[in-house]
Design brief:
The protein is of the alpha+beta class. Helices cover 24% and strands 31% of the residues.
Length: 205
Amino acid sequence: MLKLLRPMLWLLLAAMTAPAQATEEPDHQVLRQWGKVELRQYQPYVVAEVVLQATPEDAGNQAFPILAGYIFGKNKGERKLEMTAPVTQTAVPMKMDMTAPVTQTAAGSGAMRVQFVLPKAVTLETAPEPLDARVQLRQVPASKWAVIRYSGSWSQANFAEQLALLKATLDKEGVATQGEPVLSRYNAPFTPPFLRRNEIWLALR
């Protein structure tokens, strides 16, 4: 049943976010650019997130029904929120970030954090309270990121290839980064791979 539900949820999200160019993204400014690589300054934004024990390949599918439930009204007040972009996921280091509470299912190694960005008009104070205890709300502070944009599949091989290109460019330009890489996805999974907008983010040191 769950396998059938996930495609239906993705279809609902596609309807909410069409046309793609109208999808809201966090405010940011491009500071520098080298080909596909950009340095960006992001303004603060609020996310709904869940941290689960999962592989990178499975994290999105496991987290999606939980986070989609929250924005579709599984919250106090049954308030529905617009879907924005991107949906991000990143590995959680063994030494956990205590600013983002982790559910019991994320204990141990292999934890992944998946985030939905909330609309700009939503703050921590005005965001509806989740009914699912696994969903946590957090404000991401203003920050600078190195970003590479690419198309194609969400495979680990494609991710690793693009991450290597991003790191090579940053090494050449003398740009230092920190933390785990973030996979940012801007399209539903039924979008043809050659039309997808994918990005990898690395936080600047």
